[in-house]
Amino acid sequence: MSWQGLPPSSRRACRDERRGIAGVLEDEPDIAIVAEADDGFKAQERYFDLLPDVTLMDLAMPRCGGIEAIRAIRARDPQACIIAVTTYAGDGQVQRALEAGASGYVLKSSLGTGVAELVRAAHAGRRVLAPDLAQRLTQARPEQLTARERDVLALVAQGLGNREVARELGIAEETVKGYLSNVLQKLQASDRTHAVVIALRRGMLD
Question: Quick one: signal sequence residues (predicted)?
C-alpha cells in the first residue's frame, strides 16, 4: 500500500516481519503501509527511499539487527520516528534501543489491536513505552553498563582474556580489569562468566 492520495500527515510505514501487525494497520483509514522489510539492511534502504512518518522496527532481524538499523537511520535522519518492536523485555535491550534513537519500545505480545494508537502517538511526538517496561527501565538504570564496559564484556564473551581485550581495544590491561570490576559490581555477578550470562539474558550484548 502506498501513500498516494493521502495527506502527508497520514503516511506511515511498518517494517516488521510479522504480517499480523500489517493486517491490523491496513484497516486504519489514516494509516498507509508503504513498505515492509525482513532484514535491517533492507529496512534502511526502504526507509530512505520512502521516508515514512513512523517506522516499526523489529529488533530481531537477520543480517543487520534492529538496533543497528535504528542507529544507522537516525545518524542520517535525526528526525526519524522509529518504534522498536521485540519479543524480549530485557532491560539492556530497552536502554540500547532508546540510546540508538528509538522513539519508543513495545513488546509484540502487547501490540494486538492497539498498534494503530501506538503509531498515532509516536507520530504526534509522544514517547511510546509500555508502562511495565518504563518502570523496569527506571529501576534498572543504576545497573546499566557504559558503552566501553559493554565493549569489554562483549570481547570477554568471545573468550578473550584481559591481555587480548586490552590489545583489541587499545587500552591498558589494568584498565580492562577496572572495567570488569565495575561490570561485576553493577551486575552483581560472581565472576566474568556469570556477568556474560546476565548481560546476555538482559539484552545488553548483541
Answer: none
